[in-house]
Structure formats: C-alpha cells, structure tokens
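Hi Y.,

Following your request, here is the sequence exactly as I used it, all 279 residues.
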Amino acid sequence: MCGSELHKRRAAHRSGAHTGTAMTQVTARFERIKARPAYELVAEEIERQILAGMLRPGDAIGTESELVKQFGVNRSTVREGIRLLEQSGLVAREASRRLSVAVPHYHGLATRMSRALILQQVTFRELWHTSRALEPAAVDLAMDNRTEADLAALEANVARTREVQRNAPAVAELDAEFHKLIGQATHNRVLQLAKEPSSMLVRPTTAHIIANNPGGIPRLIEAHAHILDALQRRDREKGRLWVDRHLRDWRAGFERSGHDLDSAVDAIIKCSPDTAERH
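Below is the corresponding structure, written out as tokens. Let me know if you'd prefer a different format.
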C-alpha cells in the first residue's frame, strides 16, 4: 500500500472516530422517550375537564362503553383510567353503572398528602414551624367567623378533656379534636384543607409526647381553656399569646421525650400508640 493511500485511510479512521464520539456526546444529552400508558391519558383528560370547571360535581360522565367510543380505546383502558379517578375521589359510580363527577372528601385528600409528607421524611422542626404558621391563622379567622354552635362544641371538648386528663391517649384524641374544631370555626374550607395533612401527623406525635410526659396535660388543658376564652371574647392578643405558648409547650415536650427536633416524624409515629394511618 502506497504512503498516500495509507495516509487517507488513517485520516478517514480518525474522522470516523471523532464523529462517533460527537454522536455519543449528543445522544447522551437526551433520555429515552417513555410512552405513557393510555389509561393515564384517559384519566388525565377527564381530570383536566373537571378541574377546568367544564364538568361540575354531579355531572354525568357516561358509561364505560360510551367512554370507549369517545376515546377510541379498549374497555380495559377506560376501566383502569376510571379506577384512578375513583381512587382520587373525583369520580363516583352510580347504581346504574353511569359515572359522575364527585367531590373528594377532605380526609381522603389529606391522607394521601400525609403519606407523601411521611415519605419525604419531614422532621418535627418542619411540622412545628408549619403549625406556628397555620394555628394562629386559624384562631384569628375563627375570631371573626365562629358561631355559638362552634363555641359550644369547643366548651364540650375542654370539659371532656378535664374529665379524662388521667387518660393520656384520650387526651391526645381530644387535643386533635380541639384543633379540628377551631379549623371548623373558621368556616374556611381552604384553611381547613391546608391544616388537615399536617394535623394528621400532629395527632400521633402529640400522643407520643403525652405518653412520655403526662405531667404536661394540665398545661395543655389550661392553654385550651384560655384559647376558648379568647374566642368567646374575640380577644386576638390573648388568642395569639396562648396559641404561641401551647405550641412552645408542644415543642418542649417533644425535646423532653428525648428526641432531636430534626428527627423524622415517621420514626416518632412508628413508636407512638397512635398512627396517622388510623385517622
């Protein structure tokens, strides 16, 4: 082989190697396209119309057979898409087998969010700071919107808590109920829904704290009584003062239980007599 021909082949080889490297680098910038299952697309389209207000609670969506024709997919695809929507509480199946738009219940939405918070390994510090933002806001709004029925329910709660103060698990349940009643007294569904996921983690955490520090129960009852009095008098300053004291006592009780503020709430729930899943 002559020198000029050898030179050409080596040059071509180097060029090809360079091109191959460049193609590899370009290809590495992108991930493989993943096709989404058709049933997810069916569920997504129905959900989009619900959230956009094109379908309202109570509106008929149709039967599975009708949806098969509309989407141009097989029955199993429609059925799986509807199952996702039923699980999320957006769709309900009537006795006639027709499907209609439903309103998700607070508890169902909150349970899924609480599970997400647990999976994210949220800490007590994060939970405490969230409570410091939401609880004073709830008391403030309840000052304006509470009714006599709301006050009567809170009075009954405080009275029952006094009666069972030697029963730590019962006190923990009533503490959770007290804060839920305050949320209801706001008559603001957005705030209630915002509070619920974290409240479901507060409940077992409080049960754990009280079980380890039963001496703190009288302070808890005192705080509830003062918050109730502030609501009755519409005394914002007193309400804010006692909510702050109540939350600081909760934090101090957590630390006295031997836990670090940056401990994952999930670890506390697992060793608590109560669990978020029950609620």
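Residues 274-279 have pLDDT under 50 and may be disordered.

Thanks again,
Q.
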